[in-house]
Amino acid sequence: MTRTTEVTTATAIRTYSDGSTCRRFSVDSDGYVSAYDDTAGHYTTCHSLRPGQVRYLRALAQKAR
Fold first, then answer.
1. In the structure, what pLDDT confidence band is assigned to residue 58 with cuts at 50, 70 and 90?
2. Strand pairing partners for 29?
């Protein structure tokens, strides 16, 4: 079973190509990052996160574990 850690950021991160932002993310034990989609009501793949943003979210998840 894959363990996931939910991360909420203090500032919103632009996550989708339409310019929308997100503050809720999920990081699984393999480092896979998903963004919470308010419209869909669940975590989704976010292709527009920059590598630095992914590293930041992984570091936050590591601290929370």
1. very high
2. none
Measured CA distances, 40 to 36, 45, 50, 65 (Å) = 8, 12, 22, 27
DSSP string of 2-65, one letter each residue: --EEEEEEEEEEE-STTS-EEEEEEEETT--EEEEETTTTEEEE-TT--HHHHHHHHHHHHHH-
Q: What is the pLDDT of residues 3-15, one digit of tens each?
A: 788 888 877 888 7
Encoded tokens for 46: 């976010």
Strand partners, 13: 22
